[in-house]
């Protein structure tokens, strides 16, 4: 990542602002119909058919009571309802990939095109797919 960004500055790059700088992992700007989400760089995977995907399953959903998770579910739903599922991506690199919870070593906005493919708000599971890479 060439330029250094704070997490708040990465959101601002997309014209969004986090509700809370401590726990927000997503933000939206309803005026510009923009949703930005923060995703861990190391958690993108290639599917068997070669697609680049980002998935969160029921193990991660154990944290679904957190305010950041609740806000993320709301923002992904909003993206489906108002942006045809498209979201902007802030890539985060973890200080320690094995830490629970993780913390951000560095992050930056990307040009990646990502679309919400699946969202289960009750379980917290979701799938995103990257396009145009």
Automatic annotation (TrEMBL):
Organism domain of life: Bacteria
Name of this protein: Uncharacterized protein
């Amino acid at each position: 990542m060439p330029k250094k960004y704070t997490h708040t500055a990465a959101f601002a790059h997309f014209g969004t602002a986090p509700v809370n700088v401590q726990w927000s992992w997503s933000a939206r700007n309803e005026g510009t119909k923009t949703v930005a989400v923060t995703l861990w760089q190391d958690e993108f995977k290639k599917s068997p058919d070669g697609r680049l995907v980002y998935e969160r399953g029921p193990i991660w959903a154990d944290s679904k009571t957190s305010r950041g998770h609740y806000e993320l579910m709301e923002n992904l739903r909003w993206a489906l309802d108002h942006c045809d599922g498209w979201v902007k991506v802030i890539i985060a690199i973890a200080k320690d990939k094995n830490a629970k919870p993780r913390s951000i070593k560095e992050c930056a906005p990307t040009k990646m095109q990502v679309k919400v493919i699946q969202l289960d708000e009750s379980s917290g599971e979701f799938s995103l797919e990257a396009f145009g890479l």
